[in-house]
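User: Show me a protein chain along with its predicted structure.
Assistant: Here is one chain, sequence first, then structure tokens.
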Amino acid sequence: MTEDDARDWATTRFDAGAIARLDHLAAIITVESDQQNLIARSTLATIWSRHIVDSLQLAPPAPDQGDWLDIGTGAGFPGLALAAVQPERRFILVEPRRLRADFLRETAAALALPLVEVITGKVENVRQPVAVISARAVAQVAQIIASAVQCASNETLWLLPKGRAAREEVARAKQRWHGMFHVEQSITDPESSIVIARGVRAR
């Protein structure tokens, strides 16, 4: 997916206000990357395809309502990008690194996203029930579930972007966790996938 393809994908699905917030987010990250290593500098020129739309593709399969928990949000992906196109939804962004958490708070304020809550710490200490849980490039599927299962109900949807080992990670997760697991192709990278799970509970 090219940068033009990525912008076209987003503009056909989200309104002008959402696109303006995403442009603002990209600009903030580009400037801040001179101060801290938010994303790989080699991906700044492809921020729409590599990061923004890679995050936004999690929106269509998710339910329309309910709190969304994003684990290890880092530079804002996927949680802050998703919040930019769903400003009426409560997003809980969990980030253990203080500087990154401070950046997320400041950026959420700059984007006028008052329903974004940033928690500095580990998700294992969070006890808030949510409708959706996401995590991008954080840990293997089984580890992510173990760390956040206390926030999930039987109806919670798990959306976990993964690389080429997604099916192997799901196979290992099924040794410990019951649930409905599905692996879907990423629209931005032919070597990437999204693990989608529901009804997850311990065996």
